[in-house]
Amino acid sequence: MSHNTIEQNQQAQPLDHLDSVWLFGYGSLIYKADFPYLQRRPARIHGWERRFWQGSHDHRGTPVSPGRVATLIEAPEANCIGMAYEVTPAVFAHLDHREKNGYLRFFTEFEWLDDGQSVEGLVYVAGPDNEAYLGAATEAEIAAHIAHSEGPSGPNSEYLLKLAEALRELEAHDAHVFAIESELRALLE
Ligand code: SIN
Q: Has keyword Cell wall biogenesis/degradation (predicted)?
């Protein structure tokens, strides 16, 4: 599958007939909302876990030296805390461009952290069949990779450190992210 997913997302899933759509963010979408939204609410998605297994050719790395960014991996017993945004369909022109490096969006259920009610919305996931996928590595290896990567959106370390900070603000303990963070902080010192 090509790593540029803009057309695939727009063809598979036109949204113009909807007034608004909820989007669940679990990576940079948590801390970098560079788009207009109607409201946002902390949420949890079940059956998925956050992993730094996706390569970034366009934001935190380059095609020859990709960075490592978050995707979701299916894990039936797991859940993942993030931030959901209610947006108008027009915002997906920007979001599809931002998430074009291997991420496909699909509708799924997630629940609000505060009252446990479920809602249906979109989530972008970069699966193992996309060309930019890097796959599993130890947290020490991931930290070493992130420490030397940089792309048009800035250093890869900034992505990881901002995400860890945002997760603490949400009181979300993510052992994978926090283990990479502590390895990375030691390397950056
Ligand atoms: C997301 O944040 O939901 C998608 C992955 C990313 O852009 O970091």
A: no
